[in-house]
Specification:
The structure holds two protein chains of two kinds. Chain A is an alpha/beta fold. Chain A is 33% helix and 25% strand. The longest helix of chain A has 17 residues. The two termini of chain A are 24 Å apart. The N terminus of chain A is likely disordered. Helices cover 1% and strands 40% of the residues of chain B. Chain B is built from one helix and 29 strands. In chain B, strands 7, 8, 9, 10 and 11 form a five-stranded antiparallel sheet that branches. A four-stranded antiparallel sheet of chain B has the order 1-26-25-24, with no helix packed on it. The radius of gyration of chain B is 20 Å and the shape is globular. The chains are: A alpha/beta, B mainly beta. At the A-B interface, strand 3 of A face strand 1, helix 1 and strand 26 of B.
Chain lengths: 358, 417
């Protein structure tokens, strides 16, 4: 920004953007069942659902109108869109058509990604496409995990681990088809891969819209939601389950995944932004492939700055209007593959120290 | 049930449209919901917030609504006009003083002028004085600007002003009301060549279908530059006047997009920290006949050469132009320097008749973004078949108050921006 300065009375960089939830899941985890029920839910008014194969969810009887072959309006106000060329174009067209008044308004987007697809590229699209980045924000990643096959998939497919590591919320499906103890063990394994995701159960695709939203940072204005986003004010039972899960997972023979690590780091000395970003860029350039998820709040010369990365894609940092709590220390959670916490900690300390001396 | 319409998903006029704005409440103002372009907020002595609104036409004069709880707005007073050929249209409030315009339909009729009220008891507005602007060529006062408690800047006729062309009947006048019981004129300015007897030649007119007159509309003066008046001069364009000496007012800047555009410059809103003006047109014809009516971003670094550098992205023509009534720009929230007014150098809120109320982020003035809108469904008893949002006011809590021109009354909204 040169001579055109943003004065008070400006805009919250996040609040006006359309939140996007990604639904990913293992093959056979029940995404189609879930989506076909979800789009008919009465609370899906003003939600646009982007689906790869619209034919599979059988909405013909619920159609009210259809503008083009790719966008349909259901009786409950839900917009169903099939992906025509690619997701990037689909999201651009959705925004443009709404702006042009060709399709009804919508307040959020839910995207169903296909089978084993790594959600990373979709997330990258949202941050790197300037038009999409200006109008949409990633709300969160919801991953469906199939209670019947998940443990084998986790053991055999690196993509499965990745989908769990990237998730903000995980739903275990088909838990009615396996013994309760087996579900407990699966939850423990999941918690070992991703300690901060919220793990819930879902049977026969029964989900409420509110289960899929409000996962991300929604505003520059700090408040209770900011802490929840940072994973610092989770419900007591969730936290207990997470801790117990991690404990159990370490003791389940042959079933844990020691390569994926959850590292919670804390730094007391404030960073300068050049020092912090230099340390992060160095880490990404050397080990970007092994960075699954980063989320935290950084003290940048006294100001609270929220950073988050999904895969090696980083969202623009968000400076909050104030600290969300008394704690003004830098807290960052890393989910990584085969990187020691000590090394990351040392990197940020050394580079941070150089930055402050400069 | 009828067969589903598979041809279009385009929203209809009877359906609300919303993006990042939420309706908190709606009040039809006791069945008299046809509102003009005067909205002001009073912080009453007892702590209540009273929203004052001028009506668009007779029989009602103005209405006061208690909006302390914006979810439950309550009409506390609604006043009558003396006859059906006069209207108020515009008002402003400073402290417990309210000034209200009075504009007549026929030249020479009365009351044509300015009414000054004491509203310290909001339920019982008390007329302190009437400043008469009536005359053989005058329709009285169309718009008022009053933010310092002492001076009212008006677009008005005058008893002694004879325009060469009857359409040029509103000039810029400065009225001193330091003593609200004894208002007097301190200065005036008109577009050179528009008064009978002027040395300057008459200005060339716009084509007949767009000729709406060389006359003042909004006449804004801000504390940052008390020696400047920012005037939308309708077909005369955007004009900045040096009013340092009210007895000798001089034009310092002039920018006019018409022709080739279709006239009616309405508001010139200066951004003092950024050397920009936000300039709005007014759409005055139904069914898109005077389209496009826009909001402009003008680089004002050089007085002698104001330069347009962008326009606000206009609402889509295909959705709105033919849905009923007017479609295009009109009033902006004007960063009023009063306690209960939202002020921003980057975010602007405007009304666009049937395209509703819209919010724009001008952080990058070359590439303005629309960040929110709300289009109410057609109000009950609407004469136009679509809403016609006419004016907007935003309070310091960022709540948006907008009014329909014919029957919808008051809509209170919050912005998620």
């Amino acid at each position: 920004m040169s001579e055109w300065t943003t004065a008070s009375g400006g805009r919250d960089a996040l609040a006006g953007k359309i939140p996007v939830t990604l639904i990913t899941g293992f093959l056979g985890a029940g995404k189609t069942t879930l989506i076909s029920k979800l789009v008919r839910h009465p609370d899906m008014d003003r939600v646009a659902v982007v689906i790869n194969e619209i034919g599979e969810i059988g909405i013909d009887n619920d159609l009210v109108k259809m503008s083009t072959e790719s966008v349909s309006l259901l009786a409950n106000g839900c917009l169903c869109c099939s992906v025509r060329t690619d997701l990037q174009d689909t999201l651009r067209e959705l925004f443009g058509d709404r702006r042009a008044g060709v399709i009804p308004d919508f307040d959020r987007v839910i995207i169903e990604t296909t089978g084993l697809a790594d959600p990373g590229p979709v997330i990258q699209t949202l941050s790197s496409d300037t038009m999409l980045g200006a109008h949409y924000r990633l709300d969160g990643v919801v991953t469906l995990v199939d209670a019947v096959n998940a443990r084998d998939q986790l053991a055999q497919q690196p993509e499965a681990q990745q989908q769990i590591a990237l998730a903000d919320r995980i739903f275990i499906t088909k838990s009615d088809l396996v013994p309760a103890a087996s579900v407990e063990e699966l939850m423990a394994e999941i918690a070992a891969v991703n300690t901060r995701a919220d793990i819930r159960r879902c049977t026969k695709g029964e989900l409420h819209t509110r289960d899929l939203i409000g996962l991300g940072l929604q505003s520059e204005r700090a408040g209770p939601d900011t802490l929840r986003f940072l994973g610092e004010r989770v419900a007591r039972e969730d936290q207990a389950a997470g801790e117990e899960g991690a404990y159990l997972a370490g003791r389940l023979p042959g079933r844990h995944h020691p390569s994926v690590r959850n590292l919670s780091l804390r730094f007391e000395a404030p960073f300068t932004w050049p020092a912090f970003s230099a340390a992060m860029e160095l880490l990404i350039s050397l080990r970007g492939q092994d960075m699954l998820r980063v989320k935290g709040i950084v003290n940048v010369e006294g100001r609270p700055v929220v950073v988050q990365g999904v895969g090696h894609v980083f969202h623009p940092p968000v400076t909050l209007d104030r600290w969300p709590s008394e704690d003004q220390g830098t807290r960052i959670v890393f989910i990584t593959r085969n990187i020691d916490a000590d090394k990351i900690k040392a990197l940020f300390q050394v580079v941070g120290g150089l930055g402050s001396a400069a | 049930m009828n067969k589903p319409d598979l041809t279009t998903l385009r929203p209809r006029a009877d359906q609300p449209m919303a993006h990042n704005m939420k309706l908190i409440s709606h009040n039809e103002l006791q069945g008299f919901g046809g509102m003009g372009e005067g909205i002001a907020m009073q912080l009453a002595d007892d702590g209540r917030r009273i929203l004052w609104m001028a009506h668009e036409s007779a029989p009602k004069n103005f209405t006061g609504v208690d909006v302390t709880d914006p979810k439950n707005p309550r009409v506390i007073v609604q006043t009558e006009l003396p006859h059906m050929k006069v209207r108020s249209n515009s008002l402003d409030v400073v402290g417990n003083i309210m000034v209200v315009a009075s504009q007549v339909k026929e030249l020479g009729a009365k009351p044509a002028g300015l009414n000054i009220y004491d509203i310290s008891k909001p339920e019982e507005p008390r007329l302190l004085s009437h400043f008469d602007c009536s005359g053989p060529y005058s329709r009285g006062v169309h718009a008022v600007w009053f933010v310092d408690g002492k001076t009212v800047h008006i677009s008005s006729g005058a008893p002694d002003f004879q325009p060469r062309n009857p359409k040029d009947d509103q000039i810029y006048r400065i009225i001193d009301i330091s003593d609200p019981t004894k208002p007097y004129e301190k200065g005036r300015w008109w577009y050179p060549g528009t008064r009978e007897g002027d040395v300057a030649p008459p200005p060339p007119r716009l084509p007949a279908q767009f000729d709406t007159g060389f006359r003042a509309h909004n006449t804004n003066v801000f504390p940052q530059r008390p020696d400047r008046a920012y005037v939308g001069y309708i077909d005369g364009g955007a004009i900045v006047l040096d009013i340092g000496n009210p007895a000798d007012i001089k034009m310092v800047s002039h920018w006019n997009h018409s022709p080739p555009f279709n006239g009616f410059t309405h508001t010139v809103l200066p951004l003092f920290e950024r050397n920009l003006w936000i300039v709005s047109d007014e759409c005055v014809q139904d069914d898109g006949k005077d389209w496009p009516k826009l909001v402009w971003v003008v680089d004002s670094r050089t007085d002698a050469n104001p330069l347009p550098i962008g326009t606000f992205p206009a609402p889509p023509y295909d959705t709105f132009a033919k849905r009923g009534g007017r479609f295009g720009a009109h009033n902006l929230h004007e960063n009023l320097p009063v306690p209960c007014s939202f002020r921003s150098e980057t975010l602007f809120i405007g009304t666009f008749f049937n395209a509703g109320v819209r919010v724009y982020d001008t952080s990058n003035p070359y590439q303005v973004q629309e960040v929110a809108y709300y289009v109410p469904p057609t109000p009950a008893l609407s004469s136009r078949g679509a809403v016609q949002l006419n004016d907007v006011y935003v309070d310091e809590r960022k709540l948006v108050y907008t009014v329909d021109r014919f029957s919808g009354g008051l809509y209170i909204l919050e912005m998620n921006v």
